[in-house]
Amino acid sequence: MKSFAELVAEGQSVPVEGWDFSWFAGRATEQRPSWGYARLMGDRMARAGRALDLQTGGGEVLAGIPGAPPTLVATEGWSPNAALARERLAALSGRVVEVDENDDLPFEDGSFDLVVSRHPATSRWSEVARVLAPGGTYFSQQVGAGSVRELTDFMMGSQPVSPVRDPERARIAAIEAGLTVVDLRSEALRMEFFDVAAVIVFLRKVIWTVPDFTVAAYSDRLAALHTQISEHGPFVAHSQRFLIEANKPV
Question: Where is the Methyltransferase type domain (predicted)?
């Protein structure tokens, strides 16, 4: 078994660009939502004419669609991820536009008949509605309120759960933007971390779990977590996910 120092060094050395989680194989697990976002999104892409993927990350999920629409555009706000997405989406003739997640979208009104997004950091519902053509669809899997709160609380102490990511709040925001919500589902999904290196990589990658995380700042909590895993087995948390689909009226 690796020592705490060895695991910490390993956790700090792993690249965290993009949304490829293959490194975690054998180090951590996360239950998948029952609805199968990638498959459902791919089905909708196959029927679309002009599609937009918001906050695509490194383009990992979008690159897996079985067929691309004639017009395929993705946005990403972090330059290293945007560069990865350009490489991945080149085979689909996809165009990647760098735009911050909080900025207005640089597209004309009604530019797309399908807008998708997996785990957006923010949802600009008014902008989604604006760039959707009448009859168009927004399809998104999002992180729900209190996701991985067990890990957040272990590292930071008990934290209040923000209502910002509540699924019902998303429904209301979509309706207020002029969209019609046709599907809304949510699930809590079991996660297990088998060593502290996996926790470090996760916290470096999913930065909103512990917003000010650094190994130096949280060395004591990481040591306590290492001891707990060594003595009691995997650290268990639960991710929160919801699926929302909304249409723009004709």
Answer: 52-139
